[in-house]
Specification:
Layout (H helix, E strand, L loop, with lengths): L1 H26 L25
Length: 52
């Protein structure tokens, strides 16, 4: 009986640790979605014979 309880407790603990690990890894990613970026106008490139 004690072995079954320890096994169940170990499985629950492993699942909880896996959930926390995935959650912590996901929160470290930079949030780029929804942020507008300003596009700066640039000078047009000169056409040179090397580029053609």
């Amino acid at each position: 009986m004690k072995k079954n309880l320890l096994l169940i407790f170990g499985v629950i603990l492993a699942l909880a640790l896996a959930f926390v690990w995935v959650w912590a890894r996901d929160t470290n990613k930079p949030k780029e979605i929804g942020k507008a970026t300003a596009i700066k106008p640039t000078e047009p490139n000169e056409v040179t014979p090397e580029l053609i």
